[in-house]
């Protein structure tokens, strides 16, 4: 079900949003019977509380939602979403209490609270629907919610139904919806097109590896998005233990995120030359799998010693980034569920990103705050370059030791991004436990912030 607003009607339920510190004053301004009902039901304005107040006819006359305190709101992204999930069926129209500076974020959270992944089992539709306040750009919020829904659906789909061929189908569907082109290079054709590392990583799988390319636009700045599309990661011959394989359907989270971002860009008709590149593979085990100790030659000509076949994401991204750089984009962005080291550093909620441009980092951080899409800058620490340089090849795909794993992976990728203005995101793509507006499972990270920052990043 699309995550959208509903139009106001005669039976729309007035909704008051009440901050905890202002609750007593607000309550005392209501009719005596309303005030008595609210008091009797223990409503205090605490974050996430919700209560409906009956009228004389027994129907809902109004509803109240707790907005908590500023300190409490700082501890979660979407306060209003917690109340939305507790309200009974109906369409609700906010009539008081929602600060203008928080309206967009809170309305987005309300829409996202209605998300459920229903491909394999029927899920109830969201009960409480929201009328868009006049103070917000409803179309923009719906575009963000739709992008989030796309990313979550793709990540949540098991690998049996979201292999490289299904990821290709999702990209083609997106392209067809917005009049974009989609071309795909598959199997041994990757070798003919000089994409050898994508081929090497994916050749052992039953579903052939491929490079998916989506394009739209002939004028404006060149924006290229590259997303890691490892649809399942066994670890290859460096096989993961079973416990580490359980979430590997999400290893195409980078691809899901760039498709979500591309959808926002296309839906808004942003005046850019958009290019999306997704190396889509399964890292599997067979007699022709690439091996530890192999040396692969990349599209760029750099040789890479394979010290761990479970560090495959950077290999497929490397060929895609080298291809992207040949077109000299004005901004090149990669997104990947790349390293466990990033999760150790910042946990599951923050999206670490790398850039050499301080101004770009500042614009992104500002956008992250206004879109409830937290990011955190990490360093391209050049002195660590020596850690990715082995003895027998130009680069090492898995440096020994446990230090700076996310940074060394980012430095590896930077070698292939060439001279392009480059930004890399090492995301998790998964919400480990539910929260208001955030269901357990696949999730986008960084794409709302990027979408908000793009006009400034590209001088649009």
Strand-pairing-aware structural class = alpha/beta
Approximately how much helix is present in the residues? 25-40%
Biggest beta sheet summary: 9 strands, mixed
Low-confidence stretches: none
What is the C-alpha radius of gyration, as a whole number of Å? 24 Å
Q: What does the overall shape look like?
A: elongated
Number of strands: 19
Total of DSSP H or I helical runs spanning 4+ residues = 16
Distance between the termini: 33 Å
| Average pLDDT | 97
Strand residue content: 15-25%
What would your notes on this structure say?
The chain has 460 residues and is α/β, with parallel strands linked by helices. Helices cover 35% and strands 21% of the residues. The chain contains 16 helices and 19 strands. The chain has helices spanning 23-28, 32-40, 70-73, 79-84, 100-112, 138-156, 164-178, 189-192, 196-202, 242-245, 253-267, 313-325, 340-346, 358-370, 405-417, 447-457; strands at residues 13-18, 50-54, 60-66, 90-96, 128-131, 181-186, 210-216, 222-227, 229-233, 273-283, 295-297, 303-305, 331-336, 351-355, 375-378, 395-396, 422-426, 430-431, 441-442. Strands 6, 7, 8, 9, 10, 13, 14, 15 and 17 form a nine-stranded mixed beta sheet that branches. Helix 6 (138-156) packs antiparallel against helix 11 and helix 9 (196-202) runs antiparallel to helix 12. The chain is elongated and about 80 Å long. 48% of the residues are buried. The mean pLDDT is 97.
Task: Walk me through the topology.
Layout lengths: L12 E6 L4 H6 L3 H9 L9 E5 L5 E7 L3 H4 L5 H6 L5 E7 L3 H13 L15 E4 L6 H19 L7 H15 L2 E6 L2 H4 L3 H7 L7 E7 L5 E6 L1 E5 L8 H4 L7 H15 L5 E11 L11 E3 L5 E3 L7 H13 L5 E6 L3 H7 L4 E5 L2 H13 L4 E4 L16 E2 L8 H13 L4 E5 L3 E2 L9 E2 L4 H11 L3
Parallel strand pairs: 1-3, 1-4, 4-5, 8-10, 8-13, 9-10, 12-16, 13-17, 14-15
Antiparallel strand pairs: 2-3, 6-7, 7-10, 11-12, 14-17, 18-19
Helix pairs in contact: 5-6, 6-11, 7-11, 9-12, 11-16, 12-15, 14-16
